Amino acid sequence: MLVGLFVLGLIASNVLGSKITTLLGVSVSVGIFMYPLTFLVTDVIAEVYGKKRSYNLILTGFITLIILLALTYLSISLPASSRYAANESYLTVFRGSIRIIIASLVAFLLSQFHDVWSFHFWKTKTKGKWLWLRNNLSTFTSQLIDTVIFVFLAFYKVAPQFDFAFMWHLIIPYFLFKIAFALIDTPFVYWGVSWLKKSQHD
After folding, report:
1. Crossing angle of helices 87-125/36-49, nearest 10°?
2. Tens digit of each residue's pLDDT (9 = 90 or more) over 142-154
3. How far is CA 72 from each of CA 12, 66, 68, 107, 157, rounded to the nearest angstrom?
4. Closest Cα to residue 192, out of 69, 27, 43, 54?
5. Which DSSP string do the residues of 17-46 spell out, in sequence order?
6. Helix axis angle, 36-49 relative to 2-16, nearest 10°?
7. Residue range 184-193: average pLDDT?
8. What is the DSSP letter of 82?
9. Alpha-carbon dihedral of residues 181, 182, 183, 185, nearest 10 degrees?
10. Buried-exposed string 122-131: b where 16+ CB fall within 10 A, e elsewhere
11. Measured on CA atoms in the order 105, 107, 109, 115, is the torsion positive or negative?
12. What is the pTM of this model?
């Protein structure tokens, strides 16, 4: 179930994340609702099963993104049937998704590996206590890494106004939203850890 949620959050944020919406007056990708799931799941699995299982999950996600990238490229490369009238709209949406997926591949791999490393670093420092602190400290730093890398690779120069300075106008509020989501998901991390430990004994 957790692996399913992880892959869902990863694919949905890549396929749907090219749309920019406005929340509280701030422009953010709609992927903000899906991608935080991946950090929640890796922290739960890291807490119960340790580094190795978490790294395996990250590699699974990375391979999934590569396959998604290949399938997206194949889909937009194939000629459209004469009966399919929406090909130009399809190409507009999914050509943009290719850049999103490539940016996500790089940001995902670096930030997720850092998240697992940081989670276990703080777990050692706290002697396995204060899960809420370990979860949030590791997620905050990892989300910053993810946001900076992703925004620059995905959106830099996609339009004339998307210059270096504008990137930070995207990064800062986007990162603050991610912090808010990380704080909100803390109870779910506790629930996930409790559920996973209980399921081991059933």
Report:
1. 40
2. 999 999 998 899 8
3. 13, 10, 6, 19, 22
4. 43
5. TT-EEEETTEEEEGGGGTTHHHHHHHHHHH
6. 160
7. 92
8. T
9. 80
10. bbeeeeeeeb
11. negative
12. 0.83
Which residues are CB-neighbours of 194 under 8 A, at least 6 positions away? Answer: none
Report how far Cα 180 is from the mean position of its chain's Cα atoms: 15
2-201: CATH class: mainly alpha
Cβ atoms 64, 14 nearer than 8 A: no
Residue 171 has pLDDT above 90, yes or no: no
For residues 77 and 64, give the distance between their C-alpha atoms in angstroms, rounded to a whole number: 20
Structure tokens at 133: 């602190």
Residue among 148, 137, 136 at smallest CA distance from 110: 148
Domain assignments of the chain as residue spans, ordered by start: 2-201
Return the residue matching tokens 């590569």.
66
Residue 38 buriedness (CB in 10 A; 0-12 / 13-18 / 19+): buried
